[in-house]
Every structure is written in C-alpha cells, then in structure tokens.
C-alpha cells in the first residue's frame, strides 16, 4: 500500500469520527494515562488490515507500542489475539472504533476470498474481484482480496478497456465498438469484451480483443464457449457465481471467475479490543 495514500486516508477517517474531539474519553481519562490492549478475533477467519489498524493508532499516538501476534493473511480461530498495543489510553479509546471498523471489514473480505479460493483449489482459475467496492475504500478492499489470495481485476476505469452491453448498444455493435476503442487507445491497451451468447463469443473472436467476459452463462454454455475460444484469448466468467457454484464454473476451463460480492456483501469479521492493564504516569 502506498504510505502517502495511507496517511491521507487515516487522517480523513479519523477526522470524520473524532471531529472536535472524543468528548467522553477526554472527560474521563487524563492525558498522561496509559493502557495496554489486545485485539481479539471473536470468530474464525483470515486476518487482513493489521497495518491499517496500526496506522490509525500511530496517528493518534506516534509512540504507541504495536506488536502483531499473527501475520497478515493468517487464518485464526475464535479467541486468537491478533495484536498487542500499549500507549496513551486516550489514543487507544479514540482510535478503537475506526481501527476495528477497518480491520473487521478487510478481514471479512479476506476470509470470504480465501473460502472461494479454497473451493477452486487445484484448478487453473483465478478468483477475481470487481469495481463493486465501497467508495473511498477500494484500495483497501482490493488489498484484502489479495491477502485472501485472490486476484485483483482492473483497479479503475483507466486500467484497461472493458466493453459491456451498454457500450455495444451505443456504438451500434460489438465490432464497431472494438474498432473505435482500438483506434482511440492503440495496441498497448488490453481490450476485454462482454459476451452474453455464443454468437457474441464468435463475433468477439473475429476481432482484436485480449479477453472475453462470459456473462451470466450457465455451466453448459460456459463450457461450450471455452471450447469455442480454445485458449486464443483470456476468459472470465461473471454473474451470479456463489460459493456453491464456483467450483463447477471453474471446471469449465475459464481462466478466471469474478465475484462482485467479495467486496460489496461479505460480512465483517467480529474483532474486539480489550483493555488489559491500566496505569497512571
């Protein structure tokens, strides 16, 4: 992760939550008070976001002692201590909610991603994310997919051409759409096109494209499409894929399966912060 981007992000999210100050903590805890705390997983999952949580606490107390108890990307059991920290009590309590929100969100994404990756174990098929991310959190949510051993799809609209049904309709057809983007962008930019039918797959294969997204096809149609393509371009299956169906989809021979719900619908991993020891300087 870009450290400059991270610093800017942490400042923004803390400003959103803290505002004019943590009135409750400031009223009850002296500035010199120090505490030790543990971050604890309340259910099993894959940990992602420890560096982000650390950055939150360090922004509030640059001298905070942060000791990770597990490595990023580690599968953990319920009750596992993820990190131990010690510093100003005000900083620990003020940063608690923001740090936990991010750690829980990213760990939930990493957990779901790892579960899907395990489902396609042994197959030459990538588990891909999409642009269906929380505005402002994309760089972290895609990071969590990587921690879960998934593969990032394009990060944004300027990271590759993807011609979808609305683009085809506006251009007057798939062939015209491909010709126009190639003329505009040149040969150095990869072009992926969406195909809903085998006829569209056949048309796409006659054009200068690098990848075909096979959208909302059943398993039998997917298998026929992959056979038709014969490895000439990269193939991606998308639309309605679930943990229960991803194995069958991957077995059709597609190179990748994209799942938007990895970043827009996965539940957060329950994680808590517990103060263990307090002392006054």
Task: Walk me through what this model shows.
Residues 109-274 form the Quinolinate phosphoribosyl transferase C-terminal domain. The protein is built from 11 helices and 12 strands. The chain has 281 residues and is α/β, with parallel strands linked by helices. The protein has 2 domains: 3-116 and 267-280, Aldehyde Oxidoreductase, domain 3; 121-264, Aldolase class I (TIM Barrel). A 6-stranded parallel β-sheet has the order 6-11-10-9-8-7. It has a 4-stranded antiparallel β-sheet with strand order 3-5-1-12, covered by helices on one side.
Report how far the terminal alpha carbons are from each other. 36 Å
Fraction in beta strands: 15-25%
The H-level CATH homologous superfamily of the largest domain, spelled out, is Aldolase class I
H-E order: HHEEHEEEHEHEHHEHEHEHEHE
Mean pLDDT: 96
Strand order of the largest sheet: 6-11-10-9-8-7
User: What kind of sheet is the major sheet?
Assistant: 6 strands, parallel
Q: How many β-strand stretches?
A: 12
**Total number of distinct structural domains:** 2
Secondary-structure-based class equals alpha/beta
Can you tell me the CATH architecture of the largest domain? Alpha-Beta Barrel
Helicity range: 40-55%
The geometry reads as elongated
Q: Please tally the helical runs, counting DSSP H or I stretches of 4 or more residues.
A: 11
Report Rg.
Answer: 23 Å
Q: Unreliable runs, pLDDT <50, ≥5 residues?
A: none
Classified by CATH, the class of the largest domain is Alpha Beta
Oligomer: single chain
Please name the CATH topology of the largest domain: TIM Barrel
